[in-house]
Amino acid sequence: MTSTVRSLSLSLAYFLVLLDTTVLTIALPDVRATLGGSLAGQQWAVNAYTVAFAASLLVGGAVADRYGAARTFRLGVGAFGLISLACALSPTLEALVALRALLGVAGALCLGGSLGLIAQLYPDAAERARAMGVWAAATGSALAVGPLLGGLLVDLAGWRAIFLINPPLAALGLLAAKSVVSPRGTRRIDWAVQSLACAFLALLAQAVTGRSPIAGAAAVTMVVLLVVVERRSHAPALPGGLLRAAWPELLAGTVANFAFSGALFVLTLLLQEGRHLTPSAAGLAFLPLTLPMSVNPLLTGRVVARYGARPPILAGLVLLAAGLAGVACGDLLVASLIVTGLGLSFCLPALVAGVVAAAPPGTAGTAGGVLNAARQVGATLGVAVLGGIGDALLVAAGLVALTAVVYAAGSARRRVPAG
To answer: Exposed, middle or buried: residue 5 (CB in 10 Å: 0-12, 13-18, 19+)?
Structure first.
């Protein structure tokens, strides 16, 4: 099996994970028409998945490092297919929200396993960077396909159809990984630390999404407990030195996902409820934004392999800020969406390569979990915050621009590894 084919095979299941992030967004008006509910209920139909996904990513990475990436990957993919069937049968909005949360946990296992497998199969830094490019291109395709496929399925058969495409793809993912074997790791799991981390991430999302001061206070309490228990733990959730080495990448990933997910939510409602486009027409409108994310990561992987992660991350943040500002102003909308997509497709693959390369040996799954937990927290907060304020896209553009400045200053103090 060639390197490219192997990378695509490992990326198939995570394609599913990201597809479910965007495919439901375009179906929200139909969900509301069928199951009822408020704007907050629609936000939770999206956020139940991203909250659970974010809260479980550290656990998913730790389980992959401890019990083997291949075993974890197969468990996550199988569960994803089965839970998707249950989502399609949801009788109420509350049931859909609960099942979407379980789907997020399965997605975290998929991601932890796939990143662990890539680190295992590609120990050379340059080869791993190129493999990450293929992985990011395949998963970026999910962002491109999601709105369009979701719109077509909703127009043809209603929102339930979007979950019925997952089981066949999950079965293909299981077949692709059936012959891959990963050794068990020696790094132990402190379940108290992992549980506190999950609780903190979930409460933080609830505090912002539900505007709940009680949840906010509980999140503060939980993070204090987490720091205390983490310092005393025999198996801390964060690899030693990872935060100190990779905080600029973690910040950039959080803000990039905040801006993208929030903008996607705002634009979906604008196109369908403001401009009265059909779901399929709205999906087509997103293609200039999402198509670059299925092609450009291949180039990004080569750039990272040759020059390191810093140049494409910085360029991606600048392009993302410029694109969002252009969309907010309404001028040259298609061109601005393309620039936004190019920015994301430069930034996100390079972030993964940089953080995994900074991880201590045997902790690639955990390091990937840390980055993606930060990104998914950003995605959840983006929907919650930008979905409820005016001039949301300009706010997102300004925040990304500020992050580019902070990243440039922070990363200048050390050279970001190539992969």
So the answer is: exposed
- Picking from 380, 357, 374, the residue whose alpha carbon sits closest to that of residue 115 is 357
**pTM for the whole structure:** 0.70
CA 366 to chain centre: 15
In the prediction, which pLDDT does 399 show? Answer: 94
Helix boundaries (H) for 240-291: 242-269, 279-285, 287-290
User: Counting Cβ atoms within 10 Å, is residue 413 exposed (0-12), middle (13-18) or buried (19+)?
Assistant: exposed
Q: What pLDDT score was predicted for residue 417?
A: 45
Looking at the fold, whether 332 and 392 belong to one and the same domain comes out as yes
Residue 264 one-letter amino acid: L
Q: Are residues 46 and 147 both part of a single domain?
A: yes
Q: What angle do CA 9, 167, 23 make, to 5 degrees?
A: 85
Contacts of 225 (CB under 8 A, 6+ apart): 196
**Neighbouring C-beta atoms of residue 299, cutoff 10 Å:** 15
375: closest CA among 18, 137, 133?
Answer: 18
Tokens 């503060």 locate to 220
pLDDT at 418: 45
With a CB cutoff of 8 Å and minimum separation 6, the contacts of 220 are none
Which DSSP category does 184 fall into? Answer: P
Indicate if 281 and 314 belong to the same structural domain. Answer: yes
In one-letter notation, the amino acid at residue 410 is G
Give domain status of residue 416, yes or no.
Answer: no
How many structural domains comprise the chain? 2
Whole-Å CA distances, 148 to 32, 38, 268? 19, 24, 12
Assigned domain for 276 exists:
yes
* CA distance readout (Å), 244 to 68, 144, 353: 27, 34, 17
Range of the domain at 296: 3-177+235-411
Q: Are 396 and 255 in contact (CB under 8 A)?
A: no
Is the domain of 170 the same as that of 221?
no
Whole-angstrom Cα distance, residue 128 to residue 304? Answer: 10
Distance CA 289, CA 140 (A): 11
Nearest Cα residue to 353 out of 315, 309, 317, 411? 309
- How far is CA 42 from its chain centroid? 19
Task: Give which of 323, 334, 96, 54 is closest to 197, Cα–Cα.
Answer: 54
Hey, how many other C-beta atoms are within 10 angstroms of the C-beta on 247?
A: 15
Q: How many CB atoms lie within 10 A of CB 213?
A: 9
The pLDDT of residue 45 is 80
Supply angle C-alpha 292, 294, 295, rounded to 5. 70
Residue ranges in the chain modelled with pLDDT below 50: 416-419
